[in-house]
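Hey L., structure's done. Input below.
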Amino acid sequence: QVQLVESGGGLVRAGGSLRLSCAASGSIFRFNTMGWFRQAPGKEREFVAFVSWSGVGTYADSVKGRFTISRDSAKNTVDLQMNSLRPEDTAIYYCAYKRTGAVEYEYWGQGAQVTVSS
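Output:
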């Protein structure tokens, strides 16, 4: 089992920044992928970004150039730095974990609310 706990959500004005953090604990496989997803009211959950075990980040087009994902494998944490936030970024953001090579993410956090006002 792997437990994921997000922190750092909140309310910010458009153009502002927020940083989300996710701490993983439990039976963590060394070679893992950690990602961020989000779900806005009335919409499907969507991919935001993921970072490989080697630290390489991949982003959704909608956040590319504005968001940066990073990880500290020694501490089992992953952060999402969100800059130039827009009202359409408003959503619950979820941290997710899977072993490298797994098709689906295996564990999810409880979510952190991010609200961007116009």
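The mean pLDDT is 96. The longest strand covers residues 18-26.

-- N.
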